[in-house]
Amino acid sequence: MLDVASVKRQLRDVGDDEEILLESYVAAAIAHIEQHCDRRIVEGVPADSSEMSWTKDVEQAALLLVAHWYANREAVVVGVTAATVPLGFESLLWYRKRF
Questions:
Q1: 4-96: what CATH class?
Q2: Distance CA 18, CA 22 (A)
Q3: Are 96 and 52 contacting, i.e. CB atoms less than 8 angstroms apart?
């Protein structure tokens, strides 16, 4: 679904020694999106309403998550101010959530 080469392009300057870490972030991002949307991601046409297609917006949401986790590897950051980027992860997936 999401290859490490695409993730490296998103992150811009990442060495080859980070590939195992990036693969684990990709797997976690896909699992997170599936939980967030309460649907399983499939390549191709979904069989029913419990599935959703791997589309460009889902891919971008996964890339944003991986980039966030790559940049913020610890649970707590001290001495910085943070803000949510508008039109980020939630905006890409809000219409896919099942209520």
A1: mainly alpha
A2: 6
A3: yes
Q: How far apart are CA 96 and CA 38, in angstroms?
A: 9
The domain limits of the chain are 4-96
Global pTM exceeds 0.70: yes
Helix (H, G, I), strand (E, B) or coil at 29: helix
Cα separation, 83 vs 12, in Å, equals 22
Confidence of residue 78 (pLDDT cuts 50, 70, 90): confident
pLDDT greater than 90 at residue 77? no
Name residues whose C-beta falls within 8 Å of residue 65's C-beta, 6 or more positions apart in sequence: 25, 28, 29, 32, 33, 89
Contacts of residue 84, defined as CB under 8 A and 6 or more positions apart, other chains included, come to: none
**Residue appearing with tokens 């980070």:** 18
